[in-house]
Amino acid sequence: MAVIETKNLTYTYPGGTKPSINSVSIKVEKGEFVLITGPSGCGKTTLCRCFNGLIPHFYQGELKGEITVADMDTATHETHAMAKSVGLVFQNPENQLFALSIEKDVAFGLENLGMPREEMRERVDWALKLTDIYDLRERSPHEVSGGQQQRVAIAAVLAMQPEIIVLDEPTSFLDPLSAEKIFEVIHELNKKLGITVVLVEHRLDLTAKYADHIIIMDEGKVCFDGNPREILSTEETRLIGVGIPKATLLYHILQKEGVKLGDVTPLSSEELAKLLQEAFETK
Amino acid sequence: MSVFDGLKFRRVYSPIHNLDPRIKFVYVCAVFVVAIIFSEILPLIALFLMPIPFVLLAGVQKEWLRSLRGAAFLAGFIFIVNIASNFFTSGYVLTAGAVETSAAMTLRFVVLVESFSVFFLTTSPDHLGLALEQTRVPYEFAFAFTTAVRFVPVLAEEAQTIMDAQKARGLELEKGGFLKRIRNYVPVLIPLIVSAIRRSLELAEAMESRAWGATKKRTNLYALKLHRGDFALLAITIGVLVVAIYVRLYVPVPAISQFL
């Protein structure tokens, strides 16, 4: 069952001369881990804004085509109605936290929904523990590191128990180690809680291994859509400017040089290492 | 960055910090009223000494003394003006009574400053926002208040970054006369304002995405509840008011100069 489905979605920002996304038709299945990537300015962020109704409710402009998210038409459902089903995590962690303590921030969405205090307390603690920031709950968002701030933002979205979490380049302000931790948290949410994850990201080295489904965009259009192992093997993806995982690149170079390493394209160094080990052992 | 340090709020626990901000505010207002209805020095000295146990309990002596020092200049000014006007209107003689009244006026001002400073030193902005919310101030205002407090250090940091960047391009902030120096800050202010506007847009987007405005009846993670300490403070407040009004109406307050 598709939780996100768009048909010929086209959107132009007010005052824009050409559409930022152009006839995008994609389908995201329930429980999937979807990776959206592509060069800067290709319309990834715009697409994210369509998922929870920021477009067309917060941004004016011209939206054409159809989009249903969690059985709701975003054209008729306001963003706050979508918020219960779709959580959106933004790029800059600093600008999505507004309260003076972390737990208050995590509670923000639930407060807006008018949830009773006891239930809210439970949900907040649950979300804080899942993202491993329970000990920081009374600190101010200003006092913690960028990685921790981003985890607060994820917890805040998680507390609302959405079906879908959309993350728009959540690690672009973070160092590689914090980024890796964030990806692990996201992966756990997907595996353990079955939340559908839509992750917009450039760092494929760290994320490709988690993806069930990859969508590559360029100039507002979807160029490739499907299995990451197949798509990341094509020459065209590399030419668009997608950062193919180095393990995948190496695998193809070795393949070209006549080294047989099995048929499954590796997406991470661990997978490649395993293939190499197997190759050595069979020799 | 020392200017902004004072605005950074640190979570502290003390019996005074934990008091309900609403009751604390009522107490401060009561002190205010009492300070206004007395112009004799003895009750004002009593009022001046009253916040000291609170300050000690809260452990904010250093900050409190700093705020008093800040008020010292204005206090001195008030004293001199009072003395001078008395001196000139009473035929160029300086009486002990005149000095006492002037000191009382000054002390009245100091009492106002010190009790408000105790209030703001021991009340977290978080608590203050909560109090605003629970006294039925529209949530938008309370939210604007806490968000403003939250973003003070962020904007301060950003201002510093912009200043560094502009200095690196050859902007000399400390050059020229007074007006020139103010003009020097324009290249810092413009990017700061632009980025603040952009930031506010992103904030609005994030708020929308977290169900801002979903219901009219918003709930709150925290609730302000009155504890024993709050009732004690309320009792003190009422006591002070009752005694003050009784004394004002029925007891003549002596001046120190009468004993001399």
What's the layout of helices and strands?
The complex is a heterodimer of chains A (283) and B (260).
Chain A: E1 2-12, E2 21-24, E3 27-29, E4 33-37, H1 44-51, H2 54-57, E5 62-69, E6 72-73, H3 79-82, E7 86-89, H4 102-113, H5 117-130, H6 146-158, E8 164-168, H7 176-193, E9 196-200, H8 204-207, E10 213-218, E11 221-226, H9 228-231, H10 235-240, H11 246-256, H12 269-282
Helix pairs in contact in A: 4-5, 4-6, 5-6, 6-7
Chain B: H1 2-5, H2 21-37, H3 41-49, H4 51-58, H5 61-89, H6 96-122, H7 125-134, H8 139-168, H9 178-184, H10 186-209, H11 228-250, H12 256-259
Helix/strand order of chain B, N-terminal first: HHHHHHHHHHHH
Radius of gyration based on Cα positions of chain A: 20 Å
CATH architecture of the largest domain in chain A: 3-Layer(aba) Sandwich
Task: State the separation between the terminal residues of chain A, measured CA to CA.
Answer: 45 Å
